[in-house]
Amino acid sequence: MRFYKIIIFTTLLLGLDSIAQPGIGSAKSLIRLEFEDVFGLKISHPDVNLDINSVEKFTQGTQTNWLNSHLVVTGVKNFEISIKTIQPFFFSNNTETNVAVSNIKVNARTSSKSNAIVLSDVSQILISENNGSMVNYIDVNYQIPPENTFAFIGSTTTTYDTLIVYTLIPN
């Protein structure tokens, strides 16, 4: 009886093997991982103050120091950064004033280029980059040129606010 069991088992084993694998070989499978472009924009100095608190600053204008790495972009493709404000005039105590945001000039620079724009509620390209670096640092300087300080003279308002919106645009 044992002999028959071995023959039946061997026959079944050979039969199943021939059904499951018709031959000896290997198979290949291509696995493709696709990632969307991942970009990030960080603002390192979320609050910026421009002081006009002296006669000298009224006559010569005022500006911030260069805010090193004010904007930090992560991503490996070309990009542009646009800038705009949410309204055309400054606000003071939650009330719109008659002082235009266009009195502010924004300068930007990377290690390879620079650009300057007049602030507006219309989106503008502040800077573009195509160096392929994973991390890009953009220095920014805000200024009120001397020819624009007159807009702030004679006002009873001591603090003007606006919200600046930076937008990262991958190319």
What's the gist of this structure?
The chain is mainly beta. The protein contains two helices and eleven strands; from the N terminus they run H-E-H-E-E-E-E-E-E-E-E-E-E.
What features would you describe in this structure?
The chain is mainly beta and 171 residues long. The protein is 15% helix and 37% strand. The strands form 3 sheets. Strands 1, 2, 3, 7, 8 and 10 form a 6-stranded antiparallel sheet that branches. Strands 9-4-11 form a 3-stranded antiparallel sheet, with no helix packed on it. Strand 7 and strand 8 (114-118) form a beta hairpin. The N and C termini lie far apart (78 Å). Residues 1-18 have low confidence and may be disordered.
List the keywords.
mainly beta; disordered N terminus
Oligomer: single chain
Q: The biggest beta sheet, please?
A: 6 strands, antiparallel
Question: First CA to last CA: what distance?
Answer: 78 Å
Radius of gyration (CA) equals 32 Å
* Secondary structural class: mainly beta
Task: Calculate the mean pLDDT score and round it.
Answer: 83
Low-confidence stretches: 1-18
Please state the overall shape, judged from the principal axes of the Cα atoms: elongated
What is the helix fraction of residues, given as a range? Answer: 10-25%
Query: How would you spell out the order of helices and strands?
Result: HEHEEEEEEEEEE
Q: Helix count?
A: 2
Beta-strand content: 35-45%
Number of strands: 11
